[in-house]
Here is the input.
Amino acid sequence: MKKLDAYLQNVRIGKAVSFIRDGDDILDIGSGDGALFRSVSKMNIHFSGVGCDPEIAGEINTASYSILKQRFPNPSIANRHFSIITALAVLEHIPNDELNAFVKDCHDQLKDGGLMVITVPSKWVDPILNFLIGLRIMDGMEVEQHHGYDTNQTIPLFSENGFALIKHKKFQLGLNNLFVFRKGANP
Here is the structure.
């Protein structure tokens, strides 16, 4: 991972960790090597967590969290319910015909009143990424998997599946979006 990749990842993580509270049980979908969990650990927040990422080299286990080299949903955590689920730069990798099932699975794994924290790039990001990758300024993270996700579908997709929007904010010059949803009808 090049410095620009790491910087962009850290900005996304910074947006998400502000919603994590002491005692949270976190599911990080697309967790990579656990950068979000390491950031939370530095904040002296007590938490437990599971990450799912099929692209990592091998499973990771620490006292506070484990990362499975598997996709979400995952049968090994099917009966576990989390207080917060993060999916940072993940939706654009999920094929459109699988998005509804993905959101339903997130709903099923989240405790009542729990938070779903998502970041999604705007449609303008892919051409910029491809240019920067061509210049070898960044590696991009599975950018070939992007399918042109339309951020305008995010609110309806989650609202139709039992989530209430509590925050939507653009960041990184409007090229990225933060969405925070609460499980249940009332935020």
Remarks:
- The chain has one domain: 3-183.
- The longest helix spans residues 3-17.
- The beta strands are 25-29, 48-52, 60-61, 65-68, 82-88, 110-121, 163-171, 176-183.
